[in-house]
Amino acid sequence: MSDTLKVIYIASAGRSGSSILDAILGEVDGFFSAGELRFLWQRSAEPGWLCSCGRPFAECVVWGPLLKPEGVIDPAAVGDMADILLREQRVLRLSSIQRVYGQGAPSASPALAALGAFYRSLQAVTGCTVIVDSSKQPLYADLVAAIPGVEFHLIHFVRDPRAVAFSQQRRRIHPDTGKPMERLSLTASSARWMAWNLASERLKARIPSQLSFRYEDFASAPRRPVEKILALAGFSGQPLPFVDGHTVALGVHHMVPGNPARLGIGNVRVRQDEIWKTEMAATHKLYVTALTWPLLRKYHYHLLT
Description:
Blueprint: E1 5-11, H1 18-25, E2 31-35, H2 40-44, H3 63-67, H4 75-78, H5 81-87, H6 89-100, H7 110-126, E3 130-136, H8 138-145, E4 150-158, H9 161-169, H10 186-204, E5 210-214, H11 215-220, H12 223-232, E6 247-250, E7 266-269, H13 276-279, H14 282-298
Parallel strand pairs: 1-3, 1-4, 2-3, 4-5
Antiparallel strand pairs: 6-7
């Protein structure tokens, strides 16, 4: 295990394809694909949620030792991690909002110290050099970037907001819990897409190691973006899990659940998902376009589809 801890953080709106990018990176030697790590404390405590290896968190070879105080590598620092983070959640969020918008400095709170200890413990359990965290939320990215001694790399992953809104309105059942996944109205989806991407832009302005990709470009030719990410983190030339230009061989990962796509194992094809272009109502497309057009133009999306 390396003494250096690198974190590659994927910031994006929901339903933007970050899960497959996370899983691909997790196949690289020395990389650990963590999934949406910010959900660990909530979902490990709720019945039904599974690690992507298919086991309950308490029985998983990675999360089990970290979540049980008697098995934690540094129980004094991490044992009450969940309680600390839940208590200080609002304080951390406000601190991050101030930092994202250019006010104040990182808060040296017990929660931030516990967060750092947890990431170090995760590194020790997995033996990795790089943790890939696809927690998406830019405010949480700001917290991770503030952990002392972490080499932080930000990947801003953008998808057309009309595709995102269409996906977030579809009725889907999560395979872990058997419960409906969150659905958002067109207004709520567009507002979140704008807010999270604007916050990501502010983060990019002061985080030196960062890259931006559109989901559509990634899905068209996935190898090149992955190679650029590895070069950013200092791992150029590492073998990649591509079977061909669009197919990757994925093994068992230990990803914290978000999108059910994390459950894919074996040869998985990276493909464009453009069903929204034909099935989304024209009035819905126009409505989302009207709410998001400034960033649509910035990211070079066509206003008319």
